[in-house]
Amino acid sequence: MRDRKLASTGGALFMHSATELARLVRQREISAYELIDAHLRRIEQVDPQINAVVQLDAERALDAARGADAALLRGSPLGTLHGVPFTVKDNFETEGIVTAIGVAERASTVPTSDATAVIRLKAAGAILLGKTNCPPWGGGSDTDNEVYGRTNNPYDLERSVSGSSGGEAAIIAAGGSPLGLGSDSGGSIRDPAHFCGLAALKPTAGLIPVTGILDDDGRFGMMSDPRTQVGPIGRSVADVATLTSVLAGPDGIDAGCIPVPFRDPSTVSIQGLRVAVHYDNGVVTPAPETTATVRAAADALATAGVIIQEADHPAGGHELTHEIWRSYDGEISSLELYRVLRRWDAYRSKMLRWLADWDGILCPVYPTAAHLHGEPIRNGVSYTTPYSLTGWPCAVVRCGTSPEGLPIDVQLVAGPWRDDLALALASALESLLGGYQPPSIR
Asked: Is the pLDDT assigned to residue 341 strictly greater than 80?
């Protein structure tokens, strides 16, 4: 079996898509054990350089792989991701695995159950390899903490992976995991995916349960944190769509999760869609290469039949986000918070009225490619925060490269519950402009 594996994959098993890996396992061209072993070896090879994986559950992963191979031989029903490895950000509860969330007081905390998203991936046959690095308490723009230290970008070790799902993005880009789970409040999936040249989705608020996701106050939900969503990260849009289909739907625990079916992006025709594009949000001027990448994406979509027009949506989303952040730190009174929430409602309504003329939005993810460690762009997340306030789905995909050889993603935004449309646009750009490209890390 090993000879056939090498013949069919050229030896770089860890760089295949999750969809392809699942096919190889189902057709017995490789075993689940070989697959898990290959990824564990890749982690051993690259993680000393990037410091992305903070807890590795190797023995249980290999045991699960043996079980997956036995199930295949028995002819048992197989899940969508049977035998495929995955990793998760360290703010997801994982039964039997330390979940420190980057803080010393939790350095030995071991949950007794899995987050719903983890449960669903395991039910689909996927095998958990381990946990990935994040900022303290799972939120922030730099993946560094006192427990595990700093995560480095696999495209340039002197550069950031952003945050807060930075460890997850780094290990997927480096080939240590084919796909994984992050969380996003204002850009915490989208920015790391952009810094590492990956595909990802911040889903519509309420599409995927957030049960078992933690911050400094424990578990949260729609009432306490309506901006934060669970989302998939992968090297291809198809993998992100597959993962979303596995994760979507109520779990009977998260009261903010709505029973709206996830639509298949492959059934979406993008011809004739009206997409508004903006290059500069008026808060932070993007680098020339960022503008050029968004422009190339707009031109590519136009050649595919999409109607592209420059248009700016209502301003003020990032400024309102700053007010919400102040409320988290207790800097405002309950009356001030009430008024912030009223302004939030008004902003969402204003954005919906504006969106009535459009099917989607194309814009930057961040003003620049990955910056050097410790040199973030002030208000750089202003390109992602407005769509966390609206709760709209946002897909990101690599469409360009900076002069330094760093990846540049673009952001595709759609209206509520049209995650399929955002992913369909991202898939088209992936086909037209290349998508993920492996880093040179060895």
From this structure: yes
DSSP string, 341-364: HHHHHHHHHHHHHHHTT-SEEEEE
Global confidence as pTM? 0.97
Contact 162, 193 (CB under 8 A): no
List the structure tokens of 364: 């930057």
Candidate list 141, 162, 164, 382, residue with the active-site label: 164
User: Is residue 288 classed exposed, middle or buried when 0-12, 13-18 and 19+ CB atoms within 10 A define those classes?
Assistant: exposed
Pairwise CA distance, residues 368 & 382, whole Å = 12
Question: Helix or strand or coil: residue 387?
Answer: helix
> Nearest-CA neighbor of 407 among 239, 46, 159?
159
Instruction: Delimit the domains of the chain by residue range.
Output: 2-311+358-433
Q: How many angstroms separate the Cα of 172 from the Cα of each of 18, 47, 221, 408?
A: 11, 11, 27, 16
Nearest to 129 by CA among 46, 32, 62: 62
* DSSP-assigned letter for residue 285: P
Q: Residue 189: how many CA atoms within 13 Å on its side-chain side?
A: 32
| Whether 350 is catalytic | no
β-pair partners for 131: 55, 88
188 is catalytic: yes
Rounded to a whole number of angstroms, the distance between the first and last alpha carbons of the chain is 26
Could you say which of 5, 17, 31, 89 is catalytic?
89
Residue percentage of the chain with pLDDT more than 90: 96
Q: Kindly state the tokens that stand for 405.
A: 């050889």
Q: What is the mean pLDDT of the chain?
A: 96
| Structure confidence at residue 442 (pLDDT) | 85
pLDDT exceeds cutoff 70 at 126? yes
Query: What is the predicted pLDDT for the residue at 11?
Result: 52
Catalytic residue, candidates 165, 177, 188, 402: 188
Is the per-residue pLDDT at 215 higher than 60?
Answer: yes
- Other Cβ atoms closer than 10 A to 376: 18
State yes or no: is 164 an active-site residue.
Answer: yes
In this structure, are residues 86 and 180 in contact, taking their beta carbons and an 8 Å threshold? yes
Rounded to whole angstroms, the Cα distance separating 188 from 183 reads: 6
CA angle 161, 244, 397 (to 5 degrees): 40
Q: Which fold has domain 2-311+358-433?
A: Amidase signature (AS) enzymes (3.90.1300)
Give per-residue pLDDT as tens, 175-205.
999 999 999 999 999 999 999 999 999 999 9
| Token representation of residue 269 | 């025709």
Tell me, what's the pLDDT at 10? 38
Express as a percent the part of the chain with pLDDT over 70. Answer: 98
The neighbouring-strand residues paired with 213 are 92
